[in-house]
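Practice problem: predict the structure.
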Amino acid sequence: MSPAHRAPRRALSRRQVLGIAAAAAVPAAAVAALRIRPQDGPAEATSSPGRSASGAPRASVPAPPPVVTKGGGTVPFRPGKAMLGAYLDLSGTTRAQAQQLRRQQTGRDERIVHVFYDWDDLLPRSIDGLPAHAFPMVSWRGTRYADITSGASDDLIARAARRLKSIGRPLLLRWAWEMNGDWYGWGAVRNDKNAKGFVESWKRLHRIFGEQGADNVAWVWSPNWNSSPVADWNTFAALYPGDKYVDWVGVSGYNLHHEKPETLFGPIYRSYAARKPILITEVGAVDRGGRTKADWITLFADWVGAHPAVGGVCWFDTDTHPGYNEKWRIDTDAQSLAAFVAMAKSARFSG
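Answer:
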């Protein structure tokens, strides 16, 4: 999550996107990464699938991608079941107190506990307050690619691997998230537009973790929902390390400018749901008054319900994020909390 999420630098109309998609010179992966204004998104269906509103035959709609039925590495994926967790940091409370509050409100524990660490931090040997059946998700900040590919960071990486191994239970490792954005030092744009450097760095980390026996780690590759800048070297495809090196495909997406869930998460789902389980690693919604936040939570829950390859969701549940007046916590009003509780208690989120 970053101030750069607030406003896309470039918005394309649906006509422009369709024009680009028709151009043979533009790779499909690049089109998938383009920003589309929410108001230009697909209209709601108003007639039968085979006919338009006027009764004329409708162009065929592409079939949804086949859905992966296994995977997740040490954190197994259950088709049609989504784990529900959060980054939880509430003002005036300890983590244990915040977790107790959410347990009282939702009637359940988190299944994923999301924590953040800097590149040169000592990674944890344990996670305070971790529920018995929860998985930690460690978001570990990156560094410049040359610091890794040169071998200069090998000892630091090996130390990190040993510490995560010592946790002694399966965990999710989300290294260098949102690498397709321009707001972090580990983004491709700040590393000479060198997507291959990111991939090489990822593979080096993966190899060193294997050498240290950190086989409890499930690897989460997690771009932002849209790329900044939009360029061939900054697409999902260009930055993807390969199926051998990824257990979960993650994505960050926030309803900041009336984005629909399909706008935020549809492109990554269509690109990878046939190959890897999908983990929505950061999500939240701006409250614009009335039921706007509650209605978006319900819309999001419905979207997940229609997309069985989504195996996990982590809400950005906080009111302490620097630089944001928006309260991302789920209980900013009674309606929003009720919508979240309904989602949490649904069968879809019983993973």
